[in-house]
Amino acid sequence: MSMDTTPPRLQPMDLAGIDDLLTEDEKAVRSSVRQLCVEHVDPYVADWFERGQVDDIRGLIKQFGSLGLLGMHLEGYGCAGMSATEYGIACLELEASDSGIRSMVSVQGSLAMFAIWKFGSEEQKNEWLPAMASGEAIGCFGLTEPDAGSDPANMRTRARRDGSDWVLDGRKMWITNGTIADVAVVWAQTEDGIRGFVIPTATSGFSAPEIHHKQSLRASVTSELVMDSVRLPDSAMLPEVRGLRGPLSCLNEARYGIVWGALGAARSSLEASLDYAGTRIAFDKPISAFQLTQAKLVDMNLEYTKGLLLALHLGRRKDAGALRPEQVSLGKLNNVREALDICRTARTILGANGISLEYPVIRHMSNLESVLTYEGTVEMHTLIVGQAMTGHSAFR
Predict the structure, then answer these.
(1) DSSP conformation class of 10
(2) Where does residue 237 rank: exposed (0-12), middle (13-18), buried (19+ CB within 10 A)?
(3) Is 322 exposed, middle or buried (0-12, 13-18, 19+ CB in 10 A)?
(4) Which of 25, 43, 183, 298 has the most C-beta neighbours closer than 10 Å?
(5) What are the strands, taking DSSP E only, across the chain?
(6) How far apart, in whole angstroms, are the C-alpha atoms of residue 47 and residue 315?
(7) Angle at the Cα of 101 (from 350 to 179), degrees rounded to 5?
(8) Where is the Acyl-CoA dehydrogenase/oxidase C-terminal domain (predicted)?
(9) Are 197 and 159 in contact (CB under 8 A)?
């Protein structure tokens, strides 16, 4: 015989009760990152986006470091050693403030730091990882080139031997953190295949001009990397990997963060539209009382909820060591696409106000246009999932 119990009251932004699936530690991470963003990001980010410049960006990155967010899912060398799910939750909260803010944290931890942590020598790890974990040193990751985005095997950046040294020549494009970075992890063709190199950005011949005139990810530094006869010692090469497996495994780490992060932009836009619909009066009642507006809100919440369940499932698999790259592609493909659709629908609820930076929606929508493309385009992830389903490669 069962006793009748009163179910908990429904929360409009958690209709499925997903909070019940989170541990207390995971909730604590969420609370800490949310509070940091409320204090240090949210009051300023619309202005940063409008000006295309983040004030005191080094100070902000140190704030992230002080909370343990930089390389938080890595073990040792000053890193926090948190779970993959906790890292994902942090990405969601960061991107609820702005995709550019989440991107700078992801590039630092999941690309630059992960590459050194996974494939670097002990000397490289000890030199760079503690300083990067604290935010004292900023890293960037150079893979994409002007003519080699989805096909990195055809990169033109070259590294050649000159005595005991390496000499690098080439260009990388669309590099987050590049202009402010202290160290760059750069991938180049060699006679022995693709290799990674750890380049202090003060090295002669290295430059990182900032890319301007962006209309997306404006609260983020995006750069070109230029290597003009950059001379490096042999110890600058990442010793533990050769070929595309190196950079692609780093990209998989970053893509995992995007699976969660895109939902932050979606949640912020959904919250904004729900609040707006409850206060905007038309025909003597709030527009949230109209059927068509409710249909939009329900559809948005439904897709957000499904995306969050998918992200949480993938996080649990990653923590269990069972997550495959194809599953990350599935998550990135779905969650970014649905998040962008949520932002576009939220914009319609806000009407003309939807294009104003007084509200976060147009900023999130614009940012997600970049997130849709980077770390693998829709086309690439579709073909990855298609190959997993059919066993046939359709890339060529």
Answers:
(1) P
(2) buried
(3) exposed
(4) 183
(5) 139-142, 158-162, 165-176, 183-190, 193-200, 206-207, 222-233, 281-282, 285-286
(6) 33
(7) 130
(8) 242-389
(9) yes
pLDDT in tens, 53-87: 999 999 999 999 999 999 999 999 999 999 999 99
Q: Which residues are catalytic?
A: 375
How far is residue 326 from each of residues 28, 87, 113, 150, 178, measured CA to CA in Å? 30, 20, 23, 16, 29
Question: What CATH number corresponds to the domain at position 96?
Answer: 1.10.540.10
Tokens of 299: 């559809």
Residue 58, pLDDT score: 97
As a whole number of Å, the end-to-end CA separation of the chain is: 62
Could you tell me if 339 and 299 lie in one domain?
Answer: yes
Position 4 scores a pLDDT of 66
Residue 123 shares a structural domain with residue 31: yes
SS3 for 226-255, per residue?
A: EEEEEEEEHHHECCCCCCCHHHHHHHHHHH
pLDDT of 2: 59
Show which of 103, 134, 165 is a domain's final residue: 134
Q: Per-residue DSSP letters for 105-165?
A: HHIIIIIIIHHHHHH--HHHHHHHHHHHHHTSS-EEEE--BTTBSS-GGG---EEEEETTE
The whole-angstrom separation of Cα 114 and Cα 70 is 10
Q: List, for the chain, all residue ranges whose pLDDT scores fall below the cut of 50.
A: 1
Tell me 4's DSSP state: P
Q: What domain count does the chain have?
A: 3
Domain end position, chosen among 205, 236, 267 = 236
Please classify residue 306 by burial: count the beta carbons closer than 10 Å to its beta carbon, then call 0-12 exposed, 13-18 middle and 19+ buried: middle
pLDDT of residue 8: 84
